[in-house]
Amino acid sequence: xxxxxxxxxxxxxxxxSISEEVEGFTATNPVSLSSVYKSQQARFxxxxxxxxxxxxxxxxxxxxxxxxxxxxxxxxxxxxxxQAIQEWTANLVTESxxxxxxxxxxxxxxxxxxxxxxxxxxxxxxxxQGLGIELLEIAGGREDGLGITIVEGxxxxxxxxxxxxxxxxxxxKIAVHRTGQPDEIASVATECLGWDAxxxxxxxxxxxxxxxxxxILTIKRLRRKPKVTVNFQYPPDQGEEDTTIELFAGENLRxxxxxxxxxxxDPLSKRFDSGGSGDCGAEGTCATCSVSVMEGMDLLNxxxxxEKQMLENKPRWRMACRAIVGYGMKEGKMTVRVNPRxxx
Length: 344
Ligand code: FES
Prior knowledge:
Keywords: 2Fe-2S, Iron, Iron-sulfur, Metal-binding, Signal. This protein has seven helices and 14 strands.
């Protein structure tokens, strides 16, 4: 995301401010919320005013076009607690079509780590009991209540045990629902708050009125970005060594090859559409960018109808410009032959 230069300064200042708190903060307050949750009933109106911002699209890091069988269990990419403590940071984000202006959680190593969003559902509200979550403040101590508070553990037998919440998660919103009612009856935003403000927000939720109330937690979770290692092989006549590169899941194969300086378009190939030479600029109409996938075809997206028709006699071939590596957030290894027309 691009920021105006003035905003960049502000972002830098805020990020630096919070980072300083992270470095200077001694995290020694893991406390069960079970006692706090039932005793705090004060309203936290400021937080509630921003509670809807997490109703933005839940991405799960996967987009929305894959079928169920394409999807991988994203939890294999979770960061362990110790690493998550080092990675969490907070960023001021300006308003856009996707998100309201505010301070949001981020990852320090954003090139390799991303913040995913999940919903934890079905946490039953129990009279006289709390969430059963141990919280750890890793940044805080500010008068404005800003900070970073994460889940450190779950109370055995508590309401949250077995619901999918994990150490290292940050709770960004807690919503109260009643069975049979489509809409939440109350919610609080808890993203980027210190421990005290988090507890105050949770305590501001209304008291339990009926036995059929449950909570939905929107949580932020740090995950490493899955990678695909691609070994490129060149036609024997070219006498070139293999090239191996590492791509993030979701990268376009042709674009990545061009960026890395890997020869792509075959001088021998004729355009599929016109019979002439020259590529179509990644429009999927010339087939001059074709590669032969010797290993790891399952790591690519399914070819579209046009690509299937154009390459119907070449089951190993894919148009690089139409190929997304690590599709569905998969990772693994691929072996790809460039200029397949020059291979015997
Ligand atoms: S560049 Fe033309 S089909 Fe890929």
